[in-house]
Amino acid sequence: MARQLSRIEQGFGHTYDCKLCGGKVEQDNVKSYQAIRTLPKQKSLEHEIPNLENTRTGLIRIGTFSSSRVHSIGKLPGLYLVHRRCAQMIRHAAGCTKPRVSLLTLISILSPTAPVDSSNFKPLSNLDGDLFATIFDPCPTIITQQIGNDVSFRKLLHNLPPELLSLILPSCQAEHALAITVGLPEVYFNQVIRDDIARQRITVGIQATRLLHDQSHDEVYAEKNVKLSANMTAVFVSLGGEIYLQDIRERSSCGKPSKHYKDFSLDTGPQLLALQVDHLGIRNIAFGLGKDKKPQWLRDENRLVNIFVDRAATGSFASIRIVSDPIKIRMIDIAVPDRSNHPHPRPLMPYHRGIWVPYSVQTTRKPYLQVEGYFEPSYVEFSTCKSVYLSYRYYGGICGIFNESGEGREEVPLGNRREMRTVRLIGLYSHAIPGGELSFIQIRTDDGSFLPLLPDVSPYEVIDKQEHIKVKGVWWGATSYQFYFNVVY
Ligand SMILES: [Zn+2]
Fold first, then answer.
1. Is residue 214 part of a domain?
2. What is the DSSP letter of 313?
3. What is the pLDDT of residues 290-329, one digit of tens each?
4. Shared domain check, 104 and 159
5. How far is the CA of 22 from the centre of ligand 1 (A)?
6. Are residues 106 and 22 in the same domain?
7. DSSP 8-state assignment for residue 74
């Protein structure tokens, strides 16, 4: 049975981004957005109009609840904001006048767990709403004048060879590209949608609303353990122009055969878990390597992506732990007892980089965040450089590892031998510093000493200490208060 995940403490803050499309929310324009509480079964604020009480701090009062832009580290926000237009667009296009799929459910499905490139973000307009309503209308009527009177021009486009149309679509503005796809085979719509983050999220919202309408479902993330056996089935779901992993379970004789079901066999316990991940879910999974030493993906999917790879420390593994949003899987771990509470997030890297330890050095005992998953780390190779350069936060602890000098970076001379090195990682904790955590790294130099020297650790609690030998390099990633790193062999 899946268990609902809401393990992190709820705070009071909120951010001014729409949790449906990902775009900015204009805080002054209070009629353009609405707020909801971030945990299930909390008071509905959907029909209240926010009252902006302080423009500088972004303090809003909504019903009896007050919340500001002040972020509490490591806590769940108190409110999520969404554009009213986005919520209406999804419900209208899904054909749900009495929605059974809550906004909180949609936010769980649409929140990104991996980095997104939002540089091409184009806000959604009323035209988008009309287009989605037209595209998802189960009884298509005549295409209305909103998408252009020039029917002959559209006819011309529709008669183009597919290759030519595929070249034109990416160079059009999103909503125009979308308009061209009305009435064309789904493949064109999918092509436009998956390259446009905001419209892809709205599409996934519409499709998920329809799929979940008659089903019982969780509103937030849930987790479960799955025992691996010889006869397994992976279930995929098509959302927003992509195929996502929906479930992994033991094969059952009454399972309906479908193009979205993929049976697979694990005769011996697998030794490797590889995932192709994007911002909304897991697109592919492998439990082993082929003769070419590449992961044997369950589904044909040849787009080049950075992947997440995990291995069991002790040979094979017998169970996996799955974290899912209400409609698709977000994270999969090898389930072993000592990993039950490891911190996220996890690195996505090219497979040829080497074998990396998927979990970061532990600097916090807090359970992982609900909607934080994967990131693309920086990588520094020790085995090819004479020195590394570290940067530190003002209160101590590293915040960057580089193979080139730069302002504020401390040089750590390793020596001339270009070789694998022994590396120590240390995680410390103190209530007295922002975020509570500090991380340090030490590398063994040619003369056998470990550099840089550590500060006096007595004021801190040591919560993790790792030593790795024959290390090729280290991956790292940083947010304002957190630093994630580990070794690559
Ligand atoms: Zn929005």
1. no
2. T
3. 888 889 999 998 788 889 988 887 788 999 989 899 999 9
4. no
5. 6
6. yes
7. T
Note the pLDDT tens digit of each residue in 3-48. 666 567 888 899 999 999 999 999 999 999 999 999 999 998 988 9
- Choose among 231, 285, 289, 238: nearest CA to 259: 238
SS3 110: helix
CA of 51 to the centre of ligand 1 (A): 19
What is the Å distance from ligand 1's center to 82 Cα?
Answer: 6
Tell how far the Cα of 216 is from the centroid of ligand 1, in angstroms: 26
Element (H, E) at 53: strand 51-54
What would the two tokens of residue 185 be? 């085979």
pTM for this structure? 0.88
Residues 42 and 147 grouped into a single domain:
no
Residue 417, domain CATH: 2.100.10.30
> Does 301 fall in a domain?
yes
Cα-based distances in Å from 369 to 7, 10, 73, 115, 331: 8, 11, 11, 15, 12
Task: Domain of residue 168: give its range.
Answer: 126-133+143-195
How many whole angstroms from 139 Cα to the centroid of ligand 1?
A: 26
| Residue 274 belongs to some domain of the structure | yes
Number of domains in the chain: 4
* 260 and 150, same domain (yes or no): no
Amino acid at 185: P
Distance from Cα 86 to the centre of ligand 1, integer Å: 5
CA 201–ligand 1 middle distance (angstroms): 9
Shared domain for 104 and 148, answered yes or no, is no
Domain membership of residue 121 (yes or no) is no
Ligand 1 centroid – CA 88 distance (Å): 10
25 Cα–ligand 1 center, Å: 7
Amino acid at 122: K
